[in-house]
Specification:
A 7-stranded antiparallel sheet has the order 3-11-10-9-6-5-4, sandwiched between helices. Strands 1-2 form a two-stranded antiparallel sheet. The chain has 11 helices and 11 strands. By secondary structure, it is α+β, with helices and mostly antiparallel strands. Among the domains are: 88 residues, Orthogonal Bundle (Arc Repressor Mutant, subunit A), CATH 1.10.10; 111 residues, GAF domain (Beta-Lactamase, 2-Layer Sandwich), CATH 3.30.450.
Length: 363
Amino acid sequence: MTIIPPRSPLDDRLSGVPGLDQRSREIFRRLVDTYLETGEPVGSRTISRILPSGLSAASVRNVMMDLEDAGLIFSPHTSAGRVPTQTGLRFFVDALMEVGAMNADERARIDAQVAASNRPRRIEDVLGEATTMLSGLSHYAGVVMAPKMNARLKHIEFVNLGPGRALVILVGEDGGVENRVIDVPPGLPPSVFVKATNYLSSRFQGKTIDEVQRTVRAEMENLRRELDDVSARIVETGIAQWSGDSDPDAKTLIVRGQANLIENAAASADLDRIRKLFDDIENKKELVQLLGAAEGGEGVRIFIGSENRLFSLSGSSLVVAPYRNSEEKIVGVLGIIGPTRMNYARIIPMVDYTAKVVGRLLT
């Protein structure tokens, strides 16, 4: 699995950080990578040596001062070294981190010890073996939680990744952020993702995805009923006629040529209303498709430090992914608890793959 989350306006809003230029981003990314690898404060001279651009230590130091002013890094003591803040780690995970494919040996160990068993096992045993495996591979604590609640949304954003693919970013009222790469119907124009983001975020704060879907479907039914009523009036006048089969989404209203000569103000208003209703229904249909994909999309959820009240004092992070039952419903989550300086790029695909293996066993 390779996920490189694209830049989005949401990234800066999440972290409360102003826009950074490319050089600042690269220096910050190198600093965090080095800190996660060593656990030690990182100095400007170290960054200068590993940068391909050959930037001087003095220039790096000036950028690091700007990063500190932005709240992304800080000095834990009087030395010149810096470490990322919790805000900085969140910004790194959401916007800059590159998640690579799993190590083949690790994947084989998970398959062998969690999935490849001919003996009948209870679900509890499967989950226990999965968390033990995660703990052994990561050297952190494995954790299972069930069920995963369908979080109430504070913000939802769709980002087009190309034909048939999109990234949905879900921000819960609890502060959790989840990125899901989803399959979307082919042919959706890029403008649909922008419209969906603006419409959903402005109207449905505090609701779950399921509740939003039900509301949008109810609105579609109301629009269809109104369309039927208005269209019936137009058809009765002989200005238009229905064609197509009985499927309401496949029917077409054919407007005759004399519509251009209509002098009846009411009939003209009805035609305008019909056009708007068709557009509205089509937009709602695309919304329902996107919401359905977002609800079913795979995703790893990451809590860093005090973003989760349970770990707010211990300086720990939680990386979890959902597992599903035979009906493809999310029935719980499993993952890893570790220090905030864990290697997220390695842990995320490990947790994601283990959750998929458990899901296959449950089905």
